[in-house]
Amino acid sequence: MTGVGIIVASADPVRFRTALTLAAAQAALGGSVRILLDSGAVALAQERDALLESCFELGAEVMLCQTGLAEAKLDASALDSRFLHGGMVGWLAALGEDRLVVV
User: Fold this and answer.
1) pTM
2) What is the pLDDT of residue 52?
3) Tens of pLDDT along 50-86?
4) Pairing verdict, β 4-8 and 61-65
5) What is the DSSP letter of 70?
6) Is the pLDDT at 103 greater than 90, yes or no?
7) Percent helix, strand, coil in the chain (nearest 5)?
8) Is 34 helix (H, G, I), strand (E, B) or coil?
9) Helices 50-57, 13-28: crossing angle, 10 deg rounding
């Protein structure tokens, strides 16, 4: 099964919910999932969310953009340790043949 890479481009809670729903469905079907919280979307990592928890439990990888962390003045070590940290170039390089979705 082809994996899915999802870029969450803003802190819009409706778009975030849609991204998490897509991610959870893909993971539940046995597909790989990579999510990148880019720029302002990094702030969403501070919130407790049952659907995000489900994504982690189903094996989805969630990366926080390093630039977004710096812009939001967030300390990555104070956030859930399951979040990965990196940038767009590395994230895209790891995407391979997976589908790309931007929300």
Assistant:
1) 0.94
2) 97
3) 999 999 999 999 999 999 999 999 999 999 999 999 9
4) unpaired
5) H
6) no
7) 50, 20, 30
8) strand
9) 30
